[in-house]
Specification:
This protein has a 4-stranded antiparallel β-sheet with strand order 2-5-1-6, with helices on one face. The chain starts with a strand and ends in a 9-residue tail after the last strand. The longest helix has 21 residues, at about 20-40. The protein has a domain at about 1-15 and about 35-50 and about 70-110: Dimeric alpha+beta barrel (Alpha-Beta Plaits), CATH 3.30.70. Strand 3 (about 55) and strand 4 (about 65) form a beta hairpin. The protein is of the alpha+beta class and about 120 residues long. The chain has helices at about 20-40, 85-95, and strands at about 1-10, 45-50, 55, 65, 75-85, 105-110.
Length: about 120
């Protein structure tokens, strides 16, 4: 089995428009989806959501604050999954709750460098 990264993206305002009840319902759907994936064995690492603050280090080693407000979408979090190939991983991504809020899931293969490091 190969490992793939699910990178979750959404519009900046998608979550800010939700009521507390909608936020709770969305959280419950995420817990169920990832929990099912762990139980069925395709989630290798549930990953995490990303906080709002960031720093960007450029090639000149200058550090700037982020994220950038002009961005049309934000990266909200990640999960590592296992699948036979990228097409199967993309099929698994179709269950992601953020898709119902207009978000996307980018599916990327991992090179496997971590298998060769202590």
């Amino acid at each position: 089995m190969a490992k793939f990264l699910f990178l979750f993206r959404s519009t900046p305002e998608a979550h800010y428009k939700m009521t507390p009840e909608q936020m709770q319902q969305n959280h419950t759907r995420w817990v169920k989806w990832l929990g099912d994936g762990v139980q069925k064995g395709w989630v290798a690492d549930v990953g995490d959501g990303l906080g709002g603050d960031s720093r960007v280090v450029n090639p000149a080693k200058m550090v700037t604050d982020g994220p950038f407000m002009e961005a049309k979408e934000v990266v909200g979090g990640f999960t590592i999954v296992e699948a036979e190939n990228i097409d199967q991983a993309a099929e698994l991504a179709k269950g992601c709750p953020s898709l119902d809020l207009g978000g996307t899931v980018e599916v990327r293969p991992l090179w496997g460098f971590s298998r060769n490091t202590p």
